[in-house]
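At this stage, I put together one protein's amino acid sequence and its C-alpha cells, which the following lines show:
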Amino acid sequence: MSRSVEERIVIRPIAAADLAETNAIYNHYVLSSTATWRATPEPLEEHVAWVASHGAQHPVLVAEIDGRVVGWGALSQLQQSAAYAGTVEDSLWIHHDFRHRGLGRALLTELIVRARSIGHHTIIARVDSDQAASLALHQAHDFRRSPFCERSARSSAAGWMRCICSFFSRGAAKVSVESLRTPVLP
C-alpha cells in the first residue's frame, strides 16, 4: 500500500547540495507571479549568500518527497534593530508541480514550531493580495491580516502591489496592530 504525499514529506535543514534546486523553485515564481517581490531572477550566488546569512535563530528548511527537494521555507530577521529581535518574517516556496499537496502546511507548521522553540514571539508574512493560497494557508495557521504595506513594493510585471501583512503571535487568541508594539509572551 502506498503512502500519501503528506506521509512522505521530510522536513530538514537546508544543505549546500539543495541550493540550486531551492533557487530554481524561487525563480519560477519570480518569472511567473507576484509572489516574490523581485523583478528579475535571483542569481545563484545571491541565493547562496542569503541562505548563508541565516543562522540558528533563523532556520532555512527544505521539504523532500522521496529524496527530491520540492519546497523550502525560512524564518528571516525582520529588521536590524534590536527592537525587532523577537520578530521574524517567513518565506515559503513550493515547487510548482507539487502545489496543493500539503507541503506549505508542513513547512509553515515546522517553522512555527521552530520559532517558538527559539523564542521568537511574532512571525510576519508579507503576501501579495493576489496570492490566495498563501493567504489562506497563513490564515489557517492563525495569522491575522493587518492593513499595512499598501503600495509598499513595485513589480515590473504588476506595477504597485498591495501587500497584506499577516502575523502570528504566540500566546494571543486575538492579535491587534497595537500588540506589535508590546510582544505577547506565554
